Fold:
Amino acid sequence: MTFIIENQILLIAGCFLLGVAGTAVIARRPMTGRAWKIADLVWVLLGGFGALAAVLAGIYHDDSSRLDRQIDVAFAATRAFDHDAARFRLRYCEADRQGPALRPHVLTLCEKVEFLSASTAGNRDLPLFLDVAERAEPLQQLRLLLSGGHEQAMEVMAERAERLDTAELLAFAAQDEATMAAQGALAAGPHADIAADYQVIAQAYEELIGDVAELKSEWEFLQANARILMIQVIALCLVAFAAPFRLGKSLADLA
Structure:
């Protein structure tokens, strides 16, 4: 299937040339209405198949474009979450400003933020994020293109996608007994802002994981139905093959 999609231009051009050759063979023989009628019938049948394949492919492309936009938003939200989590760790976890009574509760939240960050970092390697991750670094793409390493980089990304087990989505519970107890202790003291900041991070994480899980399901559905693209290419090849016969039929009618 990959071969057909990657070489669709050559295949369509080859089928068109075969159609031209077939039309030339018919044109050299004695002009009979039956031969051209058969050629016209072939054009109608293949053209109808091509139109149906175009409708299916159009629906597939619309769904794919919508999913691409959703993936872009989810990827940006993931990076924003990582930024907020890093700021939380830098602001509250690097130095002890809370005192010995509240410090254990802060460390509990810091440990949970580490787990949440590890989860989002792992989910960024899901195959559905590979393309947007590449587009997010246009200057690196330009260097790869100029150095001739673009194809090699794409092969590496494809290998990563094949090795990754997409059946698993890394997710941790943002709220548990330990974190809720820590938030309660901090909210009652002078460092209520720490509990509030963690609550924002926890809610953002839960929404993000839900979005990524839904996107992964839709992405896998599109991957499972990617054969529609192959059907579209085959239909175009058949239409390109039949087009010269229809042209020959029109010329024969004019003659």
Summary: Confidence is low (pLDDT under 50) at residues 133-164.
